[in-house]
Amino acid sequence: MDAGKMSQDRTDDRARWRALYVASILSGFLLLGIGDANVALPAISDALRIGPTSLQLVSAGYVVTFGLTLVPFGRLGDQGHRRRLIFIGLSVYVASSLVCGLAADWRTLIAGRVLLGVSAGILMPQTIGVIQQLFSGAERGRAFADYGVMTAIATALGPSVGGLLVTLGGQAQGWRWIFLMNVPIGVALFAAGLRYLPRTQPVAATANRSLDPFGAVLLGVTVLLVLYPLVLTTGLPGDSAARWYTLLPAAVFGVLFWRWERRYARRGSLPLLDGDLLRTRSYRIAMLVAASWLATGPAVSLVLMLYLQLALGLSPVLAALVLLPSAAASAFGARWAARRVLLRGRVITLTGLFMSAGGILVSALAANLLPPHPAIAVITVAQVLNGVGNGMVISPNHVLLLIDVPKEKGGLAASIGHLTQRIGNSLGVAATSAAFYAVIYGQAGGLTNARRSTYDSALTAGVVTAGIFFVLAVWASVVDLLRMRRARAVPPSAALATPLK
Question: N or C: which end of the chain has fewer CB within 10 A?
Answer without folding.
Answer: C
